[in-house]
Amino acid sequence: MEKEPLLTQVWEIHTTVASEEAAKAIAKTLLDSHLAACIQVAGPIRSFYRWKGANHDDLEWKLTIKTSPTKLESCWEEIRRIHPYEVPELLASPVTQASNEYSQWLLEQVTPALVFQVPRSWHLRITGRPENAIPGKNTAIFGQAIGTLQLPTGPSPMSVSFEKVAGILSRFPNLHFEPDGAFTWGSIDRRSKDERLWQLDGMIYDRENRIEYVELKGNCDRATWEAFTQVLSGVEYRPLVVQWIDQGLWISEPDFRRCIE
């Protein structure tokens, strides 16, 4: 299929088949494979068309298939693969306007359950949010539909100084801080069966006595994350952004925080 600019989070694919059973079979395949979030079947409808030199007048069932930009091509090719017609009708069009709630629900449905699980280890970069950050497309992260960010001029240094952060973090229980900015922070043991072990290995980089960014590997619970990022925000509570390095995505810190268990 031809590539088009994907400017919306909801796309519709339309096709027709000769029976309700065939329509149900296509719908089930697309739902089971997380290629579509919703399929409506209408019919019978009456179709007049020309095929191999003759006019035809047949009853058909019409499928309206809702999918996302990232699954559009895969959904299209799967319909083509399983469609009973030699030359199926396949039409795709973007939905020009959809509610945020519906868009989020759709993204969740077309993302396999495995992606919803929090990774055992993160690789992140935390830095200041520049004033010219531009909202980007939504993507599924840790089971949430999260709006990404574009940073036209790159990240912005934080307002807090290296000495200030070093002094505060050095007093945190079970956190070992090195003079060069390297640190390790982890839980000692589980105090109850509901708690999990965690560890963060990080490096703080500074420039002109301001924190430029912090690189993190590992994972932690939400309370630990909030305590750490509050230190980085400083007394001015400057907004932060998080780069999920493995995926190449920038996300606002509050959005990333709500994904953490």
Largest sheet: 9 strands, antiparallel
SSE pattern: EHEEHEHHEEEHEEEEHEEH
Strand content: 35-45%
Give, in spatial order, the strands making up the sheet with the most strands.
6-7-13-12-5-11-10-9-8
Number of helices: 7
| Number of self-contained structural domains | 2
Q: Could you estimate the helical fraction of the residues in percent? A: 10-25%
- Give me the Rg, rounded: 25 Å
CATH class of the largest domain: Alpha Beta
What gross morphology would you assign? elongated
Distance between the termini: 40 Å
Low-pLDDT segments, ≥5 res: 1-7, 113-118
CATH architecture of the largest domain: 2-Layer Sandwich
Topology at a glance:
Blueprint: E1 11-17, H1 20-32, E2 38-51, E3 54-67, H2 72-82, E4 91-94, H3 100-109, H4 113-116, E5 122-128, E6 134-141, E7 144-150, H5 162-169, E8 175-177, E9 182-186, E10 199-207, E11 210-219, H6 222-233, E12 240-244, E13 249-252, H7 253-257
Antiparallel strand pairs: 1-3, 1-4, 2-3, 5-11, 5-12, 6-7, 7-13, 8-9, 9-10, 10-11, 12-13
Structure description:
With 261 residues, the protein is of the alpha+beta class. The chain has two domains: 11-110, Alpha-Beta Plaits (2-Layer Sandwich), CATH 3.30.70; 114-257, TATA-Binding Protein, CATH 3.30.310. Helices cover 24% and strands 37% of the residues. It is built from seven helices and 13 strands. It has helices spanning 20-32, 72-82, 100-109, 113-116, 162-169, 222-233, 253-257, and strands at 11-17, 38-51, 54-67, 91-94, 122-128, 134-141, 144-150, 175-177, 182-186, 199-207, 210-219, 240-244, 249-252. The strands form two sheets. A nine-stranded antiparallel sheet has the order 6-7-13-12-5-11-10-9-8. Strand 12 and strand 13 (249-252) form a beta hairpin.
